[in-house]
């Protein structure tokens, strides 16, 4: 009985520690989400995940390759290995 009790106590302690860590990480990501672009080494921008969907362009841009014609692929291509 005592071993089982000790095992359960250790499991509860582990779960409580995991829960506190998850709460801390969530608060940290919320704080980081407010400052989206951040300067990194060598003046490169690093973007953080924000869970905000991207804005789709309102107009369709023309496809520059729509009028291109390509040579047909030959019979040298096959599905066999």
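^ Assign residues to that structure.
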């Amino acid at each position: 009985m005592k071993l089982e009790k000790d095992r359960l106590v250790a499991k509860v302690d582990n779960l409580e520690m995991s829960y506190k860590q998850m709460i801390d990480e969530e608060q940290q990501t919320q704080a980081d989400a407010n400052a989206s672009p951040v300067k990194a080494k060598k003046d490169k921008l690093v973007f953080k995940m924000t869970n905000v969907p991207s804005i789709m362009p309102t107009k369709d841009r023309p496809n520059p390759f729509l009028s291109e014609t390509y040579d047909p692929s030959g019979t040298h291509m096959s599905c066999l290995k």
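The chain has one helix and two strands.
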